[in-house]
Amino acid sequence: MKTLQKTLMAVVAGSLLSMGAQAAGSYGNGYTGQPYVGAKVGQFDLDTNNADDPTAYGVYAGYNFDPNFGLEAEYVGSDDADYRGGDIDAKSYGAYGTYRHAFADTGLYAKGKLGVARTEIEATNTDLGGFYDGEDNDTSLAGGVGLGYSVTPNFNVEAEYDMLGSDTDLMTVGANIKF
């Protein structure tokens, strides 16, 4: 099942990039759709007792249909964090609709996204002489808010806070390149 999910996310990301590469239409205001790819780093906030929050790292790809609306797909994984004498790690796969609001000509913009995310949390521990190996997988409505800054017309930096389900949040900073 995990291989199928990774394959589906790769297909979605590839489709978004392919759409962007083929886009040549104008939207009446001189704007032509624009694909982008990026990377992010941050921290998962897991609602789990006695667990450190794992460091998150991820990649994402998207397509802006106009200056405000777009689509985005992402994968975010983590390192192993301490959990009751063992480890805990998290992964998230998501697909979102996005909205950006630019603040005049400052380069600063607000970003919102809403979609679906699959979050997988895996824990192992050997506390009290026993052994536990378990998973908590959840597919749910997900969303986030963030602030971004356009360093150049084709390079942005962003900070985001995402809610991935009932017990998982994600805080990241990242950068993306537009084509």
From TrEMBL:
Lineage: superkingdom = Bacteria
Q: Transmembrane segments in this chain: where? A: none
Q: Which InterPro entries match?
A: Beta-barrel_OMP, OMP/PagP_B-barrel
Signal sequence region: 1-23
Q: What is this protein called?
A: Opacity protein-like surface antigen
User: Residue ranges of the Outer membrane protein beta-barrel domain?
Assistant: 10-163
Instruction: Recall the taxonomic lineage recorded for the source organism.
Output: Bacteria, Pseudomonadati, Pseudomonadota, Gammaproteobacteria, Moraxellales
Write down the species: Psychrobacter fozii
Keywords attached to this entry: Signal
The record's Pfam families line, in alphabetical order, gives: OMP_b-brl (PF13505)
